[in-house]
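Protein modeling request. Please complete all fields; requests missing the sequence field cannot be processed.
Requester role: graduate student
Desired output: 3D structure, token encoding
Chains: 1
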Amino acid sequence: MYFRIDRGVSIGHRLKGTTMSNRRLVCLEFGPPENLTFEDSPVPSPGPGEVLVKITAAGVGFFDGLMVQGLYQIKPPLPYYPGSEFAGTVAEQGDGAHHFKVGTRVMGLSGGSFADYICVSEKDCTEIPPNLSDEVASGFCANYSTGLYGLQTCGQLQPGETALILGASGGIGSSGITIAKALGARVIAAASTQAKLDLALASGADAGVLYSKDDWRSDFRQALGEDTLNVVYDPVGGSISETAFRCLSPGGRFLVIGFASGTIPSIPLNLPLLKQSSIVGVDWGGAAVAQSNLTRGLLKNLAQWIQDKKLKPAPVTVRPLSSAPSALAEQIGGEVIGKLVLKNEA
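Delivered output (346 residues):
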């Protein structure tokens, strides 16, 4: 996951001549989401190359739940301001910011997005396509950028190949289905319940299997038929990862996205040797830090796909921003199907 950790408004970066306040969710100590509270702070003003965005909606991800518990690979300093993706309207431009005029609808990635306002680098956002609502746009950036970078750049998924998408009903999984289909691949979805699998099939998967069944590998072979399995897209981890790897055809690519199951798998290294296949870590965050224009490039490509009707984002479930603590609790509890977003009532 790529984000800018938001510890609040920097000294000297206040919105000049205003008494407006900025409501934002704050994590004062790591723990369950129920401990999170809202605070009022001054509205920030954008620094060089930044824009001030009035947030209309913000996406909720599994990553956000890990961060507030202190369980992510990177533990942020406290106080920590949750949220990592947003949609909104440009309210002010910083020095040197020229891509987006005031009033432009934008979507992007930045820490601290569970708030009324944030300042964000122009490189980390793009204009929202006219045929996309703010609510859908706010839950679009992280998952679909991960999917495009993972499947196209890391996985080298080609038209006519087959991809197995694990955790197919979640935000990462459902976006993976959509991206793989847009790249011209055949998609087999894998989920833990029939309701989740039905959602994955409705998202465009060509076939599906339940990995909660003991013999799901047999069901997968039947779904695969005469095709080869070229790519596994795994945001789940745990015991299903090794089984999924064993399903790969020679020359396949196993993409490590994350570990929503809470367990990091231990895949025997003789399997890549015997399968003549590779395990590829999809560290989009690290790549985005090393390549400053990567995020904006991915978002622009995805926005163009939407305008061209090559890509149709999945529907989202909308909650008020004030319900952020309970929404995060549902997210980390595995209760959310699809993508959950928070709409700003302000």
